[in-house]
Amino acid sequence: MIQGSNMAEAHPVGFQWVMEAKARGAKVIHVDPRFTRTSALADQFVPIRVGTDIAFLGGVINHVLQNELDFREYVVAYTNAATILSEDFQDTDDLDGLFSGFDPETRTYDPASWQYADAGQKQEGQGRQQHEEQRETASALQHETHGLNVEGDPPRDPTLQHPRCVYQVLKRHYSRYTPELVERVCGVSQEEFLEVCRAWTEASGRERTTALVYSVGWTQHSVGVQYIRTGAILQLLLGNMGRPGGGIMALRGHASIQGSTDIPTLFNILPGYLPMPNANQHESFQDWIDSVRHPGSKGFWDNAGAYAVNLLKAYWGDAATADNDFCFDYLPRITGDHGTYRTVMDMIDGKVKGYFLLGQNPAVGSAHGRAQRLGMANLDWLVVRDLFEIESATFWKNSPEVETGEIVPEECRTEVFLFPAASHVEKEGTFTQTQRMLQWRTKAVEPPGDARSELWFFYHLGRMVRERLADSTEERDRPLLDLAWDYPLHGEHDEPSAEAVLKEINGYEVATGRPLSSFTEMKDDGSTLGGCWIYTGVYADGVNQAARRKPGREQSYVAPEWGWAWPANRRNLYNRASADPDGNPWSERKRLVWWDPDKGENGEWTGDDVPDFERTKPPTYRPDEGQGGIAAIAGNDPFIMQGDGKGSLFVPQGLIDGPLPTHYEPVESPFRNVLYGQQANPTRKEYDRDDNPMNPSPPELHSDVYPFVFTTSRLTEHHTAGGMSRYLQYLAELQPEMFVEVSPALAAERGLQHGGWCHVVTSRAAIEGRVLVTERLRPLRVDGRTVHTVWLPYHWGSGGFVTGDSANDLLGIALDPNVLIQESKVGTCDVLPGRRPRGRAVLDLVASYKERSGVDVDPGTPIVTVGPDADVHDHRDPVMRKEDGDP
Amino acid sequence: MVRTPLDWPVLRQLRGPDVLGRGPAARSRDTEELTPRTKTADRVVGSVCPYCAVGCAQRVFVKDEKVVQIEGDPDSPVNRGRLCPKGSASKNLVTSPLRQQTIRYRAPYATEWQELDLGTAMEMVADRVVKARNDTWQDIDEKNRRVRRTLGIASLGGATLDNEENYLIKKLFTAMGAIQIENQARI
Amino acid sequence: MKPLIGEHSLFGPVDPAAEAGYVDPPARKGFFTDTSVCIGCKACEVACKEWNEIPDDGFSLTGMSYDNTVSLSANTWRHVAFVEQPAAPAAATDGAGTVDLGMPGPPPPTSPEGAQATEELPDFRWLMSSDVCKHCTHAACLDVCPTGSLFRTEFGTVVVQPDICNGCGYCVPACPYGVIERRTGPEGAKNVGIAQKCTLCYDRIGDGQRPACAQACPTESIQYGDVDELRERAKARVEQLHEAGVMDARLYGADPDDGVGGAGAFFLLLDEPEVYGLPPDPVVTTRDLPHMFRRASAAAAALLVGAAVAFAGRRG
Q1: pLDDT tens string A640-678
Q2: In this complex, is the C-beta atom of A20 within 8 Å of any C-beta atom belonging to chain B?
């Protein structure tokens, strides 16, 4: 099941395994707005309107529940289906698209009413304030591995009949997501939809599993996290989680984007998903630790104190002692949203002095390219480290804003340093790939000329900054001066040892230097240090485990001796669920790990993979009342990072926008939400500014000014913003020009010639491309109307062998509230034949559209569209505008 | 190889079974000496493709300190020696004629690049970091909360970098008090 | 004594390496390209270029679906065709109408009414196929080469020797598939002016390695191996597809009795060869050489006899 992903094009080599499964009889289904190379190889292709995946998947959930097709034994034992919810919970059907606890003023929820029955209720309002803060700080990313905090034993009804048990709540929530509704919202015929339901349910259960694949086709939405949640609910209901051939595969798009989340270059987390301390919440070291481990709660986060101490020890070495809370005070504090889009707005507003770009090209690759470039043009200095002269380094001389006169080189003060970077074969280190596996790269050759690794750059930058402050007595400089910044250097360029850094990441005993084998060896007294607890074990026994390359054909299909996967070299997370509650495989053909009563002293977990469970905890183990931490997880609770050990069908905490996925329209949509009065995600993050206008959507007037839906994505032949592909002849020649795909019907409607030019207009920009008329794009019937989708690749800019306009310039910035990721997979637009105007005239074109749509008067969109506080603007009405005295 | 008059193609053709001169008799000297550069490489090192996150293992062939070939590693249980067009083009990535090898510097209000040597550029960046940090330092924020940070220095990037690099980047920036540190994972 | 030209030297089934005079040659090597699993990623094109140091083919958008390298050429030795096929029923109802030559490329834009119809006909296909030199059993390019640059290797493949080729270009029109071409640029590239085409990575296979394209291919659409074994595999794959209801599956170039004596590189297609831009029934352009040679010899003999008679008559 591939949805929200163009796997064959974006992950072609991974797709070999899909083809292999297909050859062995698996049915491959692709649900996507556009017929792609993935669709061409699928058994079934289902075209869907962009931005309606929750409606579609909600329909499948409804099909499963109405027909009782769930894997009941698994659902009762391993999910929270039986758990009974608070009486106060009200669902979206009661409140026209909102859950109970909503405050229209702050657009946040107080999740008190979402809790399990008899759970210790938090004080009214406290939760709301937390939600406000959590949205600002993208808290779901911190929660990526934090799981649910559950105290005590919430009541359960294993018969699933209690009206307030999660199963029944779920059933009611999705009861309106019928095949008729799916057809009306998604544009998918009922026959096609039911065929998917049949295939998915028939290939799930005791003997069979279905794998679900998604990519940023799901992530990059204002409801992105809930898209993925919907997939998770289905996979739990069908018993596909933690089992071979099942699961949810998030295909990530960059060589070490998983690693850069685990060891984050992200504002709100520290290595190992520890939160950056927040000035509001974490006044003391203990506050900070407790916010992660939730004293009294269950699960593996109970040891968070040790993980945190080890990180601080790794950062500040000898200076970090128990007496000074291991230099906790040295950590800078966040106070809200410091994400990349907020920062770009701050650049435009002149608040940021210096900016580093490290192998990243936001002038082309980030949403709202114009804002990105205007931000860069208002810095004191910019450091770009890259292989090529990318657009983010040349915005001052050849960006679209130079053409329009918005950036004048002679008036732009930004100092720009372009440093040549070392390529992947010119340095050593580890990438973490999409399945959490670390693989070591050996250095092949020296980088050419002045090219250097980031390791070199940052080590020496740190050294030089520390030298400049060496005599400082300023308290603010202590964190830099006390920093453990002593790595062995080698070679003619004094390259720091990547292996020494990896050893620090792994962790070791301070006194002896002995590398730790497991994070369970981490102590909270300062006697061990380790930079990223989930990576502990990668340097076990002093051996670089990530460098292991035992040929795949010489080991089991799990291939545990190739590279190293976190945590503890487990390849399949939550694999305890591959066995039944008694510890036996659900079926022989789907066995992965199981309980062997004859192994060890009193029995052990064993199998093809490293069991994701305490090795000697028998299936019969039941915790005593009042136990906390790991001991509170029962022998038949496979989801060990969750406070109740169960997979969450319903999520009482941790999500800003609700405990259950609900269909909302994209922020920019030509359609009214037919399910609820609430149009789009009411808790989404928006930057309501004149330089970030959003196209109007119903119930507002004038959405017809931007009548078409557009979506953007990758081509096999290029890589993201093109910085690693447009500069290579062999890739540039394969897709040499920016183009725009339209259906024959839209081409006829707008007079577009195949091979000719067209331009696409939004309230942010107008860009041009060559026209590709193709039946791979198909108009869909939605809610009684035909909707056209326009597709654009986003790989082009002004640099390299092949150049073109950048699709990301079309986008505005609206973010998912849980993770602050932008809705870049869907927007509305108009399409016109011919090339776009040049120079200032392009601004006039964009302005004329804004005027016609009323965006010039109010750049924002109404967010709450239901209830007495609905803030639907009427001043966009031309008559009203006249009365208001608007020009 | 010593060549005698008997090696003349026409004689070879008439002497051997290849009377039409379409096979062995037609083989040239270069053909006889043909050897794949994967065989003549000085060394082969294990690497990983730098594009998407599938994590395809690569074998990098080096001759005279130059990369002469990059191909999939058949030992890998992930890619079994296969690569996509981008992975297959990764030698082109390393050896592209457009690759930057020197520092380019654009002074404020300048209309062209100028060259800088690496050492000077590093000193300049270190000076600017120290200054920006001092100029924008906050011990407390506007709500009187202790924050000890700078909002004057931001960074974006890391998803294409090594874990070890991201580790040092985050460590240094955190010690510096810079918090607007982001990468593609947010995008 | 072996005749100068054998019965099948220029046409019909034969082991090409032995025919070319190799004693005990290794098994004939070739490609089986199974287009039913091709994902159109073009890894083969790139891997080929990287290995063989082939220059780029220029940067221009063709509008032919995702095909921007157009065809096999001196600078493109593997070429992936993309065929966007509208739903079949539309063509079926149009029996007496124009014949769609099925050349790769997008369908002509239809009217809005036509588009309405496609809403109900989702049976759209996007065919992808990686083309390559066929390494014919009877290779006309080789037979016409006056310098001996093109030659038959011990693996039965057909390879250009750049150090011999004088760029005469006789091979170019001789190829029934339009594969071989003289490299005309770019300036500074190696082998400019010389005939160029796939060598089946002669250097790699001589060292027991796989050709670069087959090594890279993510889905094993391109399979390299012994031609005999590949033909068996291909037949089995067609049967498997037929059993699965894919009745359009057929082999192209696998038959030793075809016009080129069977290709060393053959294909599994999902439609007529023309749809992929392949000639439906290629024939080695030198097929009639022996026949012509006999005719010409007879004519020459007659001429000689005539001359002799005339000469004798004059004497008489």
Answers
A1: 988 889 999 999 989 999 999 999 999 999 999 999 999
A2: no
Dist CA B115 CA B96 (whole Å) = 20
User: Does A123 score more than 50 pLDDT?
Assistant: no
A770: containing domain: 685-883
**% of chain A surpassing 70 pLDDT:** 96
How far does Cα A257 stand from its chain's mean position? 10
User: Average pLDDT of B161-168?
Assistant: 98
Distance CA C19, CA C22 (A): 7
What is the percent of chain C with per-residue pLDDT over 70, rounded to a whole number? 84
Sign of the torsion angle spanned by Cα atoms A497, A503, A506, A510? negative
Per DSSP, C73 falls in state B
The minimum CA-CA distance between B111 and chain C, rounded to whole Å, is 29
Which H or E run contains A606? strand A604-607
**Type of residue found at A214:** Y
Q: In angstroms, rounded to a whole number, what is the distance separating the alpha carbons of residues C24 and C18? A: 7
CA distance A738 to chain C (A): 9
More confident residue, C115 or A319: A319
Q: Does residue A454 belong to any structural domain of this protein? A: no
Specify if A80 maps to a domain: no
Residue C86 has pLDDT above 90, yes or no: no
Contact predicate A372/A393, CB 8 Å: no
Q: Which of C58, C63, C124 sits opposite A733 (nearest CB)?
A: C58
Whole-number Å distance between alpha carbons of B132 and B124: 12
Tell whether pTM > 0.90: yes
Total domains in the fold of chain A: 2
Question: Closest-CA residue in chain C for A786?
Answer: C116
**Residue type, position A687, single letter:** Y
Q: Evaluate if residue A883 carries a pLDDT over 70.
A: no
Which chain C residue shows the shortest CA-CA distance from A8?
C39
Q: Mind telling me how many Å the CA of B163 is from chain C's nearest CA?
A: 27
- CB-based contact A51:A666 (threshold 8 Å): yes
Query: What are the pLDDT digits (tens) for A612-643?
Result: 999 999 999 999 987 888 899 999 999 998 88
- In angstroms, the CA A203 to CA A565 distance is 28
Q: For the CA atoms of C182, C185, C190, C191, what is the dihedral angle to 10 degrees?
A: 20
Strand B57-63 to B43-48 pairing: antiparallel
CB contact under 8 A, A265 and B86: no
Which chain A residues are Cβ-neighbours of C55 within 8 angstroms? 729
The mean pLDDT of chain C is: 86
Going by pLDDT thresholds of 50, 70 and 90, the confidence category of residue C119 is very low
Query: By percentage, how much of chain A surpasses pLDDT 90?
Result: 89
Domain assignment present for residue A779? The answer is yes
Contacts of B79 in chain C (CB under 8 A): 218
Of A360, A432, A468, the CB nearest to B184: A360
Domain B37-95 in CATH 2.60.40.420: no
- In this complex, the residue of A444, A505, A729 whose CB is nearest that of residue B163 is A505
SS3 per residue for A305-328: HHHHHHHHHHHHHHHCCHHHHHHH
> Rounded to 5 degrees, what are φ and ψ at C245?
95, 5
Q: Tell me whether B66 touches chain C (CB under 8 Å).
A: no
B57 touches chain C (CB under 8 A): no
- The per-residue DSSP string of A761-826 comes to E-SS-EEEEEEEE-TTS--EEETTEEE-EEEEE----SSSSS----GGGG---EE-TTT--B--S-
**Burial of A481 by CB count in 10 Å (0-12 exposed, 13-18 middle, 19+ buried)?**
middle
CB C148 within 8 A of CB C168: no
Which helix (DSSP H) or strand (DSSP E) does residue A373 occupy? Answer: helix A369-376
Q: A499, A521, A546: which is the final residue of a domain? A: A546
Last residue of a domain, one of A546, A581, A614: A546
